[in-house]
Specification:
Oligomer: single chain
Number of helices: 6
Number of strands: 0
Distance between the termini: 22 Å
Largest sheet: none
Shape: elongated
């Protein structure tokens, strides 16, 4: 449709600092060594009330187990098993996972905040209220 002129062509501004995030190691493609007792600890996490620091500690202890689970299952199953992702502080858990996979980069929140202003600008330009 762009070629026929039905949709205006999008002109891209040259970027001065584009960095593509690549995994430090492709942690979701290679077999990860599963932590001892990680399945039991993960079950404990979902069956008991704990403080947030305790949740973060267990999250770090089960990270390889969790990443293997994420590799095998769909989003609904992931959120069902790892319900803490959906909690108000769940973004911190995503940051822990992000840092494990992309250890060469700063935290997920920082990268997202940098990119979100660009995303909002694009949305403002392309989505118009009727």
């Amino acid at each position: 449709m762009r070629q026929n002129g039905l949709i205006p062509a999008i002109e891209k501004e040259p970027s001065t600092s584009k960095t593509k995030l690549t995994p430090t190691i492709d942690n979701l493609q290679i077999p990860l060594e599963i932590e001892t007792e990680s399945e039991n600890v993960a079950n404990y996490l979902s069956n008991h009330d704990m403080t947030w620091p305790e949740i973060e500690e267990i999250w770090r202890k089960t990270i390889n187990y969790k990443l293997q689970f994420i590799k095998k299952y769909n989003t609904a199953e992931i959120f069902n098993k790892w319900q803490h992702y959906t909690k108000p502080m769940g973004y911190k858990l995503i940051d822990i996972d992000f840092h494990k996979i992309y250890s060469r980069y700063s935290c997920f929140i920082t990268k997202f905040e940098e990119a979100s202003s660009k995303l909002i600008k694009i949305l403002d330009e392309r989505i118009k209220d009727c």
